[in-house]
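Lab meeting, item 3. Inverse folding demo.
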């Protein structure tokens, strides 16, 4: 088990009567990649700023490498930061941009030369050492910003929406690049984004934030397949939510939905008859089946909309009870459902996730 690199103990922040961050406790292991994910105003940037020492918490403590850092200035925390706008010095060559933090730390000329050239090789840009930032593409500038941050081996690297200014193809490439550097160097990264796909693709763990608090924290797999709240289910990917109550318990949980449908789940846990729950199923788990399918969950409806999205097609299916479900199917020209078609959707009981009633917003 990795040692604790960062610990937040009851950290909060208020601005007058405005709560920017409720009391928050969080731990991060050495060499891990933790993403703070959430909508605007959820508290993720405030939390990052407190870790960086740019904002003083209203309460609680920040611990870095087992040392209390709550009141320590940023430059004494051993932290590196990468921003969305790169923040490179336009009047310095790429070599000197990367060398800057080493020179500030009084590194010898030999050490500076060695480390800068090593990191340029690592990011696969040794040939740009004598160029200026304006002569590089956006993706190359972002890699230089990463190199400048990593060259002096900071204890933790903080990244605040670093890929937000890039186009999709370049952003996808840089996600893989950052993940590769994280693995190769064993660096500890605290990353902020509002992009769900980015968080799922890059993180060891995701800290999902909502309304200035942690909503759920866990692996990408946990948050996607086992969301604990409706917000988590809906923010990370698409979901179909069917509120209802328990009518049978045992090997399978039976839910009588508010719209009259019956849903089966193989979820484990202590559930009581008449307990209010919501059933959640992901669109990719809804299959088009025949009415006599043996799948435990089946719903009949009419296709109200077809959304083409390249390799996948989303079907919006409205049932006779007025509930609309979204199913994601591989795109095909053969027997593809059209708007107005009547179809039957089915799914396994294992694909039904149960969410407690107190998280279900009416």
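The presenter then showed the designed sequence:
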């Amino acid at each position: 088990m990795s040692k604790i690199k960062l610990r937040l103990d009851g950290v909060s922040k208020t601005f007058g009567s405005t709560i920017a961050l409720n009391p928050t406790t969080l731990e991060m292991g050495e060499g891990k990649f933790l993403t703070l994910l959430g909508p605007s105003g959820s508290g993720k940037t405030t939390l990052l700023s407190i870790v960086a020492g740019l904002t003083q918490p209203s309460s609680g403590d920040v611990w870095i490498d087992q040392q209390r850092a709550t009141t320590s200035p940023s430059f004494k925390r051993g932290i590196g930061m990468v921003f969305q706008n790169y923040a490179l010095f336009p009047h310095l060559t790429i070599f000197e941009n990367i060398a800057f933090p080493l020179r500030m730390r009084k590194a010898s000329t030999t050490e500076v030369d060695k480390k800068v050239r090593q990191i340029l090789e690592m990011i696969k840009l040794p040939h740009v050492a004598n160029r200026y930032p304006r002569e590089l593409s956006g993706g190359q500038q972002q890699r230089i910003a990463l190199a400048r941050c990593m060259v002096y081996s900071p204890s933790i690297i903080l990244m605040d929406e670093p890929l937000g200014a890039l186009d999709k193809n370049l952003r996808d490439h840089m996600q893989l690049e950052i993940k590769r550097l994280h693995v190769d160097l064993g660096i500890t990264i605290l990353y902020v984004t509002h992009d769900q796909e980015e968080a799922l693709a890059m993180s060891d763990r995701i800290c999902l934030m909502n309304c200035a608090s942690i909503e759920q924290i866990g692996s990408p797999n946990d948050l996607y397949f086992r969301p604990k709240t409706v917000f988590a289910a809906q923010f990370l990917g698409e979901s179909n939510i069917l509120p209802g109550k328990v009518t049978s318990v045992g090997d399978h949980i039976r839910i009588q939905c508010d719209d009259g449908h019956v849903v089966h789940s193989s979820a484990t846990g202590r559930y009581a008859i008449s307990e209010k729950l919501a059933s959640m199923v992901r669109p990719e788990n809804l299959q088009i089946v025949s009415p006599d399918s043996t799948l435990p969950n089946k719903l009949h409806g009419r296709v109200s909309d077809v959304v083409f999205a390249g390799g996948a097609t989303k079907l919006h299916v409205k049932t006779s009870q007025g509930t609309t479900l979204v199913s994601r199917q591989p795109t095909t020209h053969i027997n593809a459902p059209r708007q107005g078609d009547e179809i039957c959707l089915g799914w396994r009981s294992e694909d039904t996730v149960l969410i407690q009633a107190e998280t279900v917003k009416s």
